[in-house]
Specification:
This protein is of the alpha/beta class. The protein has one domain: 3-Layer(aba) Sandwich (Aminopeptidase), CATH 3.40.630.10. The chain contains eight helices and seven strands. β1 and β2 form a beta hairpin. The longest helix is centred in the last third of the chain and has 17 residues. The structure holds zinc ion (ZN).
Length: about 280
């Protein structure tokens, strides 16, 4: 069914160093909560915001760069993918535009994954370094229309008050992320925020949070409670997939890229290799 969705959905492709390719796991995932819920939202979500280039899936395993959509102002939302295998891990940063310390961390993670194929055996790692490009540019939490994207997902607890958007997925950025998750069907998701300095989680992510926490002693495990319409609520509670929300401290902004990686890189690598410890460099 996911194949069917991919073939019928417009899916923007760009740049992939060697040609045309899409972003999807090589093998069809097992039936699970994501698949059962996928059909209607995917077509509905993409139709309203159809990219102009249709999907061409030949050689999709080669896909390493793709644009999954555009922000309100037209900025590209880019994805990078590494490896190929049934164990799919999705990382996002900067869904809140003024909490962007995770973006350089994911860029560094990309370098690591490129340099260390041992981390990719049997798995595919998908990175969205800037989930909210307009917010990041304007140093605002919300997107270009003033909507908090991390309250705009179709979770049962969605609440249209405040800056959450009139209805779930009314924003192009949240639709792009939503559709990406349905396509990729990740086994686990990590989203990086600031400034609370803890690891929060939703869904069946106790073990994942625990392993990540062992590699980030300055980020204690702390259940913050599921926020209405958040990515955590949707992925963790509705889809039943493990999702860890990394809350870096505000002081992360003042650290060099090298220091940030030294402090939190091992935690990200642990999320990649879960349930195993990351191999030594
Ligand atoms: Zn946040």
């Amino acid at each position: 069914m996911l194949d069917h969705i991919l073939r019928s959905s417009p899916w923007l492709l760009v740049l992939a160093g060697g040609g045309c390719a899409g972003i999807t796991p090589g093998a069809p995932p097992p039936m699970g909560p994501i698949e059962r819920r996928a059909a209607a939202p995917v077509s509905a979500g993409v139709a309203g915001d159809a990219p102009s280039v249709a999907a061409h899936l030949a050689g999709r395993a080669e896909a390493r760069f793709a644009m999954i959509g555009r922000s309100v102002s037209g900025a590209a939302i880019d994805v990078r993918a590494f490896g190929e295998g049934p164990d799919v891990i999705l990382f996002l940063a900067s869904i809140h535009g003024d909490e962007d310390a995770g973006t350089p961390l994911l860029q560094r993670l990309a370098d690591e994954l490129e340099a260390r194929p041992d981390l990719l055996a049997g798995r595919r790692v998908v990175l969205v370094p800037v989930a909210n490009p307009d917010g990041r540019t304007s140093r605002r939490r919300t997107n270009g229309r003033g909507v908090d994207l991390n309250r705009n997902f179709p979770a049962e607890n969605f609440d249209a008050r405040g800056r959450h958007g009139a209805e779930p997925l009314c924003e192009p950025e949240s639709r792009a992320l939503h559709d990406l998750i349905l396509r990729e069907d990740p086994a686990r998701v990590v989203s990086i925020h600031q400034p609370i300095a803890c690891l929060d989680w939703d869904g069946p992510a106790d073990d994942l949070a625990e392993l990540m926490g062992r590699h980030a002693p300055d980020l204690p495990l702390k259940k913050l409670g599921s926020r209405p319409g958040s990515l955590g609520s949707w992925v963790g509670l509705e889809l039943g997939r493990p999702i860890v929300t990394v809350e870096l401290p505000r002081s992360a902004d003042r650290l060099s890229a090298a220091k940030r990686w030294e402090r939190w890189g091992p935690m990200l690598l642990a999320a990649v290799t879960f349930p195993d410890e990351p191999p030594p460099e």
